[in-house]
Amino acid sequence: MVTVEERYKHLERTIRGYNISADFEQVRSAYEYAREHHGAQMRRDGTPFITHPIQVAQIVAEMRLDSESIVAALLHDCIEDTDSTYEDIARLFSPTVADIVDGVTKLTRVKYTTMEEEQMENLRKMLFAMSRDIRVILIKIADRLHNMRTMEYQTPAKQKKKAFETMEIYAPIAHRLGLAKLKWELEDLSLKYLDPVAYDEIQRSLEAESAEHNQFMSAVQAQITERLTEQEIPHTTVYGRVKHPYSIYRKMYLQEKTMAELYDLFAFRVLVDTIPDCYNVLGVIHDLYKPILGRFKDYIATPKPNMYQSLHTTVIGDEGIPFEVQIRTYDMHAIAEYGVAAHWKYKRNLRGEQGEGTYEWIRRLLENQEDADAEEFIHSLKIDLFADEVFVFTPRGDVVNLPAGATPIDFAYSIHSVIGNTMVGAKVNGRMVGFDYQLSSGDVVEIATSKSAHGPSRDWIALARSSEARSKIRQWFKRERRDENIAQGRSAFDSELRHAGLTMGQVTDSGVLPAVLKQSGFQTLDEMYAAIGYGGYTAAKAVNKVRNEVRQQTKAAALEKAAQTRAEKEAQEGRPPAPPKVKSEKGIIVEGLSNCLVKFAKCCTPVPGDEITGFITRGYGVSVHRKDCPNANPSRTPAAEQGRWIKVSWSDDIREPYSTALEVVCKDRSGLLVDVSTALSTCKVSVTGLNSHATADGFAIFHIVLSVTDAEQLSQVMRKIHQISGVMKVNRPAG
Ligand code: MN
C-alpha cells in the first residue's frame, strides 16, 4: 500500500528530474492545501480523495509542465468539490493559478448530453474555446486520464458514458496537441469499457503470445542494433513494442481480419541524434529487411499538423513477419510523445520547418517563444484559435456555434426563425437574462416562446451579432407586416398622387400602371405599396414615374405628328410661318411648338442661364442639351436626323429648381466629405445625391446631384467648393 506522502514524494522526484528550478515550496503548499480541503473525502476505490489530484499532477509532471501547472493540477478539484473559492486560490497562490483552476472547473461542469457524430467536432472546439490558457486543457486531459485509469469502481452506465466522451472528445484533442502517449492510453482505456469483449480478446491473445512476441522483438532489436554499431551510427536506441490494443482493434475492424492475419502488429523505434542519421538508419533497415512498397512515409520532410516528425517504413523480417520501423531523433521523439507540452524543451528543431496546417496557430505561438525558458514558455501559450466564436448548448445538449458577442437573439434565430420571431424570454444556465446578454462558451441557453408574441422589435437588429439573425429579423418586418405595409404604402401613394394633381384613374387607365411597375421592378401594385410601407421605396418616386408616364403617353403621339407636319410644311413652303404664341414647358420654349413634352438631357443637365439646344426624340419629346455638350454637336448626328435639331430657349416664368450634376476632384484627406457637405449647405442648395470614391493614387472624386435655380447659383456653388482645401477641379459633366 503506497501512502499519500509517498505518492507526493514521487511527484517531487519527477519534477526535480526535469525542472530543478521549480517552485517546490509552492507545490508543497498546494498539496497541503488540497489535502486539507478535500479532508475526509474518499474516492470510490476506497483511497483518500487527495490521491486523485496528486496523480493528476503526476501525469502533468510527466508532460514536463511548469510549476504553475503542477500547482493548478493539485488544486484542480478544490473549487468544484470543497469550500475553497477562486479568491482564496488567487490570494494564496496566484491569480494565474486561480484562472487555470477556474478554467478546469468550467470544463468539468460542461455536460455532454449529445451522442451525435456531427456534434463532436463542435464539442471539441468548445473545449478549446473555453480553455483560454492551454494549460487548462492539458490538466483537463490529465484529469480525464486518471479518472479513466480508475474507472473500474464506477457503475457500468457511467463507465460507458465516460469512455464514449473520452474516445470522441478527449482522445482527439490529445491527438491534435500531439500528446500521442496520452492519446493511446485514453483510447485503450475507453475501448475496455466500450467493447469489453473485443478488448479482452485482444488482451488475452497478446498475453498468450507475449513470450513469442518478446522473443521476436528482441531478435529484431539485436539484429538492428548490431548493424547500426557496424555502421558506426552513434548514440542509437532501438526498441520494439506490440501495437496498442485500440490500434489493433481498429485495424481488425477496418480490415475485417483476425489478430493472426494482421499486417503489422509490431513497431520498432530507432532513436538517433541527428536528421542525417535518421536517413542513414533508414538505408540500413532497407538493406537488412525487404521493404514493402508504398509504405514509406517521410514525416520529417513533411511533419504532421500536430508537429509529429518521424520516418515510417514497413519491412518483412526473416520469418516473413511484417513490422513497422519508426526512425526519429530524440527531440522529435519527445514531441511525438508529449506534443505541445514537450515543445519548450525541444523547440530548436521545429523552427520554421512546419507546414501550414490546421494547427498553424500552435506553430506561430511556438515560434515566438524561441528564447523563453520553460516556465515562461507555457505561461504565454494562449489558445486563440476560436477567439471569435462562442459555443453554447441547447437544452437538448446540441452545440450551437455563434460569433463572439452573440446574444440570445442570435441563438434563437440560429435554431429557427420561428423561435426567434416568437421569443418572449431567455434563460442562460437556468437564470432569466435580458436579450442583450452576451453568451459565453459552455452556456446552456433556453428560449421561451409564445404564440401571442408580438414578434421581433426593431432594436433586436442592433443586438444581434450574426448576419443570419439580422436578416431573419428584417425579413419578418418585410413579410409579417405585409398588410400593414400595404395599407400604409397605399395611403402614402394616394396623398402623393393628389399632391401631384393626378387621379387614380390615370394610373389604372391605359398602359401607365404596367409601365410604372416595370420601371420600378414590382410585379403588382400591392407589392409596390408594401415596399413603400416598409420603407424600401418612396411614394414620391412612384408618383414621379406615374407623372412622367402619363405625360409621355399623352404627348408623344402629338409631338411626333407635329414634327411631321412641320417637316411637310417646310418642304412645301421653304420657310415656316411666323411662330404662333408659345407656352413654356418646364421653363423651356420650343420654337414653333406649344405644349410640348420636354426633358433635360442626363449627360449635361442644363440649368437656366445655360445656352441650350433641343432635339426631337422619337416618342420621348424634346430633349434639351447644353450647347457645349458633346452630344449636342450636330456633326455627330446622322444626316437624316439633322432636321430634328430645334431651337429652344429659357422662358421667363421659371419657378422650380433644376436638377444638375457636379464632379469634384480632390486630393484625398480626412474631413473632406464634411467640408464639401458644409459648403453645399451654406449655399442653400438641395442635394439629392452625393457619393465619393477614392482612387488608387490618392485622389477622391465626388459626384454631386443638386438642384439650383439657375446657372448663376450653380457657379456660386462651384466657386465655394473650389475654395475647399485640397479641391483641384470642379466640373459640370457633359457627354
Ligand atoms: Mn478531477
Task: Write up this protein.
Helix 6 (86-92) packs antiparallel against helix 7 (95-109). The chain contains 29 helices and 21 strands. The chain folds into 6 domains: 4-179, Hypothetical protein af1432; 205-338, Beta Polymerase, domain 2, CATH 3.30.460; 386-460, Roll (Ubiquitin-like (UB roll)); 481-553, no CATH class; 578-604 and 615-649, no CATH class; 658-731, ACT domain (Alpha-Beta Plaits, 2-Layer Sandwich), CATH 3.30.70. The strands form 6 sheets. Strands 1, 2, 3, 4, 5 and 6 form a 6-stranded mixed sheet that branches. Helix content is 49%, strand content 15%. The structure holds manganese (II) ion.
Key structural traits:
alpha+beta; Ubiquitin-like (UB roll); 6 domains; six-stranded mixed beta sheet; four-stranded mixed beta sheet; 29 helices; 21 strands; binds manganese (II) ion
- Level-1 CATH class name of the largest domain: Mainly Alpha
Bound molecules: manganese (II) ion
CATH architectural arrangement of the largest domain: Orthogonal Bundle
- List the total number of helices: 29
Let me know the CATH homologous superfamily of the largest domain.
Hypothetical protein af1432
Structural class: alpha+beta
What's the overall average pLDDT, rounded? 82
Please summarize the sheet with the most strands.
6 strands, mixed
What proportion of the residues form beta strands (DSSP E)?
5-15%
Number of E-state strands:
21
What distance separates the N and C termini? 99 Å
- Compute the CA-based radius of gyration: 41 Å
Low-confidence stretches: 344-384
- What is the total number of structural domains? 6
CATH topology annotation of the largest domain: Hypothetical protein af1432
